[in-house]
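A quick aside before the break. I want you to see a complete sequence-to-structure record at least once, exactly as it would be stored in a machine-readable document. Don't worry about memorizing anything.
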Amino acid sequence: MNDVSNHRYLRFETGFTLIELLIVIAIILILIAIALPNFLEAQIRAKVTKSDAEMRSLAQAIEEYRTDWPRYPPQSTYERTQFSPIGPAFGNNCFSLMQLTTPVSYIKRVPLDIFAPQNEPTIYNDSTNSDMPVHPADQAHGITYLYWSQESLRFNRQIDTADAMKRSGINYVLLGLAPDRDLDTINLSPETTPGLRIGAVPWIYSPTNGTQSSGDLLRWKP
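That is the input. The structure line, written in tokens, reads:
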């Protein structure tokens, strides 16, 4: 009996005490607190990379469209397209890029903006401190990257803004929301444009300012 009792006593002595368990848990929580922000930062960087790659593919498709047709794709907010035959619809954007998928498949599908607040009726416009309504077609399809062209602006008689684009050598612009998930560049005017604010630091997303800094992702050439 004594041998059995001693054996049980030894087994009890080799276990963890409550204090030791608490110390281990505290160490694990500290490691999680250190690792989690780095993991989240890596996720954001990966999403930015994906967004940039998708806009690059779209820009290449837009240039290929321009090679086959005498102009860049019409922007469906201002002009009729094959996907919006009843005429322009203010705020609508997905019909513009769908022209790149058919009848000639310059791109297989229109990607959704990974940072856009999908299934929501508005997008916050930081440059006007207001909510911009999302067109029902964009809500149904999913919010794509924003697109507008110098030609469509001229069609809509926004001559001053189109001329500002021309002076900056910009034929079209693709815009993606950055990690702050709001618009910073879309409020256009000739006075604040040259280059559609493309050279202005507050409007361009840069991870060097912190991965969740303000600004938009912009592309105006392949």
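Two observations worth writing down. Helices lie at 2-13, 18-68, 94-98, 136-141, 150-155, 159-167. Residues 54-219 form one domain. We'll return to this after the break.
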